[in-house]
Structure formats: structure tokens, C-alpha cells
Amino acid sequence: MTAVDKWNKRYLGSELVWSKTANAEFVRQVADLVPGRALDLGSGEGRNAIWLAQQGWHVSAVDFAEVGINKARQLASEKDADKIEVNWIVADVCEYHDEAGFDLVAIMYLHTSQSERDHWLPRAINMVRPGGVFLYIGHDPKNISHGVGGPQEPELLPDVAEFEPYLRDFDIVSAGILRRDKGAEIGHGMEYSGNNKTAVALDCMVKAIRR
To answer: Which CATH number do you get for residue 131?
Structure first.
């Protein structure tokens, strides 16, 4: 089964895999930005892209799982359509590129092999306009031994150091490990079904502004 087939299968069914609510840390990191053009790379069921559109952003949301994109369209239709402008794109993140550039490029919990990351990571960073923001949040490698949930293969989890060579033209606003309470959160992490309500996940976050 290919990765596309795996994710399309996972997104099948009427229930959302994640939630209707945007990721809380994502909201905290972008809430004070002036709306412009935004790219949500690996958008899944679209909750973060929809939230951006509701704030006035013009959003392109890219994911290779057509079932996930279709669920995102459905979720958007349930909300205030007049405030939602999202260009839903079914495409492999390793191949997608937009020459026009974006004021925000956001990558949330996109966990791929190193070889795939070598394709999409520099592409994503290069699509940030001068003055624009690059934001990555995903499980940190230390989450495997010191956190809960998420992939258990180290190759799928970049740490902060992996981003630094690509960000020489950027001012780094924040870079490090976030502690996320998976028992209390609404948003990413809904896949965790453990009974430990104090379970903590460790996330890698990088936020940078292009000079």
C-alpha cells in the first residue's frame, strides 16, 4: 500500500481523524500576523487552512490524499462560506511549487522520510516571500523516548538543527521543543486514546521571518 493509499484509507468515513478546531499552538503563533497569502503544506482535513481563511487569509492547502481534501471541502462548507477562501490542491508536497510566493508557509505534523523531506523542505522555505513567515510544528525526535503518541521512527522526525542550514536568509523568531498536554488539548492529538490525561508530547517548532 502506497503512502497515498494509506492516508486516503485513514480519512475514509464520516468522522474526522483530527478535529474541526485549528491546532492551538498554530493559532497562537499566527494570530498576530497581517493576513496575506498562506500555504498550508500537508493540510490533511483542512482545519488550520479553514481557520486562516476565516481570519482573512487567501489560502492554498496542499495534500496528496484526495479523501482528506474532500473532507476539508465539506468541513469548509459547514462554516461561514463568505469568509472562507481556500484553494484546495491535491498534490504531492514534494512536487508542489508556487512562483508567486507566500506571506506564510505553515507545515503542521508533516512527517515523511528524510529523502522526501530533502525535496519538500527547501521548496517550502523558498516559497516564503521577503517579510513572510515560515512555521513548522511536528513531533520532535525526543518524543519517541520522552513523550507520547506520534511516529516512532526517528527518520520521520526532524529536529531544529535540520532546519538551520535552510534558514540563512531568515531571522529565527523561535526554535526549540514545545511540551504539549495531549490529555487536555482540542486539536492535533485527538488520535491519542490513552487514559493518562496528563500525557505530554514533545514537539519541534521553528518560526522564522525572511529578511
So the answer is: 3.40.50.150
Q: Quote the number of domains for the chain.
A: 1
Of 14-28, 129-143, 179-193, the range with the lowest mean pLDDT is 179-193
Residue 18 has φ and ψ, to the nearest 5°, of -100, -105
| For residue 194, pLDDT beyond 90 | no
Prediction pTM value: 0.91
From the number of C-beta atoms within 10 Å of its C-beta (0-12, 13-18, 19+), residue 130 rates as exposed
* Domain coverage including residue 149: 3-210
3-state secondary structure the chain: CCHHHHHHHHHCCCCCCCCCCCCHHHHHHHCCCCCCEEEEECCCCCHHHHHHHHCCCEEEEEECCHHHHHHHHHHHHCCCHHHCCEEEEECCCCCCCCCCCEEEEEEECCCCCHHHHHHHHHHHHHCEEEEEEEEEEEECCCHHHHCCCCCCCHHHCCCHHHHHHHHCCEEEEEEEEEEEECCCCCCCCCCCCCCCCCCEEEEEEEEEEEC
Q: Per-residue pLDDT for 25 more than 80?
A: yes
